[in-house]
Structure formats: C-alpha cells, structure tokens
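Sample intake — Gibberellin 20 oxidase 4
Collected from: Tolypocladium ophioglossoides
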Amino acid sequence: MGSLDASLPSFAHSLPVAALPTVNYRALLNGDAAEAAKLLSVSVREGFFYLDLQDGGSATTLENVEQLYQFMRAWFNQPAETKLQDLQSNYTDGYKATGFFAGSYDGTRDAYESLKVSHKALHAAAASPTAGVQSHRGLFEAYLAQANTIARQLLASLATAMRLPPAERFETFHQTSEDSNSVLVLLRYPYDPPAQQSKSVGHNKHTDIGSITVLFTDQWGLQVMAADSQQWEFVAPRPGCAIINVGDSLRFLSQKKLRSCLHRVVPVDGQTSDRYTIAYFLRPDNRVSFIDSNGELVTAEHWHDVKYEVFRATHEEQRRDTVLTGGLEPVEAHKFH
C-alpha cells in the first residue's frame, strides 16, 4: 500500500493505493541506460508503472489527451439511439454499450461503454471511421501516432536493456506497415448511484491482450493486483503521466520474463461523476506467433479474437480457462473451448 498523500481526495485516504514506480520518458528517448534498466526492472516485477511525459517533448500529446476528454464528454452524452448507429461490427472499431462483457463481481455485467478507433479505420480504403471520429480525424490521427510512438519506444528500450539480438527485438514484431489489431479505446463508466444497486459493475479482472497499454484517466477506479501481497490496490491518477502496463503478447514474446499484471475497474465510494479513460493498445502484427497461456502456438490475431470471446463469457466459464487472466490464475478442472 502506498503512503498517504495530502494531495489525494478525502475519499482516497482510506483506500489501498499502489506505490507504482515512475519511468521518465525523456531519459528513455535520450538512451539513458540506467532509466532503461529501471524500465526493465519494473516490467519484470510489477508490469505496471507511471510514465512521466511532462519533460519529454510530449506537450502536444498531453494537449491531445485533453482534447480527447472533451470529445468523449460530448460524444458519450449523445442519446443512446445516436450512439447505437455506430455499433461495433468487429472488435477493433465502433461503439459498445454497457453490459456486453462480464462485470467485476460474480453475476454482474460490465459497467462501461466504449468507442474504438483503429489504425485500419483511419487509413485503410475499405474501412471508414464513425461520423463523430471522422469530424475529428486530425485529432485521432495525431493521437494514435503519438501513442504508438510512445509504446514502440518502450519496446525498443526494453529490447536494448535485455540485450536482445536484432531478430528478437520487440519492435520487429510490431511493424507499423503490417496488419495488426492495435487500437485506441475511449471508455466511459457512467456514474451509478449506490442506491440503484446496478447489475452492471466496473470492468472484470483481466490481463491485456496486446503488448503495451498507454492509458490516461483522471478518475479513480482502476485496481492492480500487487505483485508482493496479491491484494487489489488502486492506481491513483497522476497529471502529466500515462499509466503503462505490459500485456499478454509481450509477456509471451519475452518468454514470460516480463509481467502482464492483473487489473480491473471497480466503483469507488465518494466519487460521484462519470469516469473517462483513454487507452491505446499496441498489439503485435497479426501474423506474429507465440506460445500462449495454454501452451499452444498461436498467432497474435488468434489470441486477440479468442480473448475477446472469453470476455463475453460468464464468470463460471471464464474460470475454466487460462485466457482471461493470461495464465496468472489457476483454472477449474474442465476447460471450455
């Protein structure tokens, strides 16, 4: 549990707060070997950390984050029938309403709605972004490029710190010219008064599908499973910093040397507003293969699709397979497929 911080809101003083390390982005850009070694250490142990972007020439990125928050508040507050016109037809683009996946606790469904924007939709001739995204195309193109650059820099710094040979460097599995399921996901958790006792609760525990997640949020609710105590701890929002975590694919590509940490989102007593999250998921090229948590050789595309199907399953079904939690939790005796 992190030490109490006077800057925390009053409701947070009673919460178990994760004491996550902070990595300096500018130092990584400058090739600082000590900072790269720190990045490697936290990626091996915690798999979750803050990335300080305030002095890394990332002012434009942080400005775009604020513009995305403004976009989200306007877009998600449209009538439901308007949002449903952009209903997702796949797992990389479009709108998802609340309740589509399993929720944080047994017997509940998820409590977030999301809008996904992929590189494919912005750049492929055969795809087209939703009308709201189309009207802000410049913002989305800029931010996806910035988040992708940040994530790929983390991969390069990790590869250098691990002294990987050229053919095994993580960047080689994440080529911007190749087809992948890398995507930006905008999420809103509508405020739900406790008295309503909703059956939609948070975001179920999981490990991320891809390699690197670049996340921004200005509200509480995100929890990580502490590496030492195996207890849930809250991640405090920190201005000027992205929250970074290692995903399954990078764990598998590193021969499980790097940690893909369990996390979830739960309601927080004392918080009375909608929660917004901006998450960019860097995923390997679809044809990249690795050994998954079931010990099977699969492609990145297959792992992506299978995991999304498991997100939709019941809690009982999820406990019978390694996929949801990336093999970090035991499973029941009989798997489902």
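Post-analysis note: The first helix runs from residue 25 to 29.
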